[in-house]
Amino acid sequence: LIVVIRTVMNKVGGFFSETEAARVVKQFKEIDPNFTTIAFQKQLREYIVPEVVEAYIASDDTVLKTWFSEAPFNIMEAKKKQLVQQGIFSDGKILDIRGVEIMSYKMLEPNNIPVMVVASRVQEINLFRKYKTGELVAGSHEDILLSSYVMVLTRIPEEMDNSETEGWKILEFVRGGSRKFT
Fold this sequence. Notes:
alpha+beta; four-stranded antiparallel beta sheet; three-stranded antiparallel beta sheet; about 35% strand
């Protein structure tokens, strides 16, 4: 009888337990009592995602160093180094950013770091030019791509006084699949 009661209580209690999303939001509210997901989604759409994606396309080290943690910054630097060795640079453009959404909330183990996984769709033109002449070596102004970007964000309490990032840091940044946009 006791085992049956415990089983029923555990199942019923599971309905009312705190979700991982609630734990993440609670952690962010502890860091910043004014945090709301609605306001943050607006900030993502209007500022963070456009700023980061444009800097990524342009290989802007200064902006990316501000937003990226060490791991994604080092990956971006390695890609940029390959381009420099070939004597070319990225001269791409962002045309439109849509579908900026918080896809999930996670607590990263082992330190229980609260993060949000953010995805977006970007219409972009990827162009590459020679450093010395500016001559176009890859891409075309007519080739518009629809790319997916995913980033994992957390908030660093010690960096909340940074007026540009307000403590937000990108732990992972991935440019997913791209296809021609017609």
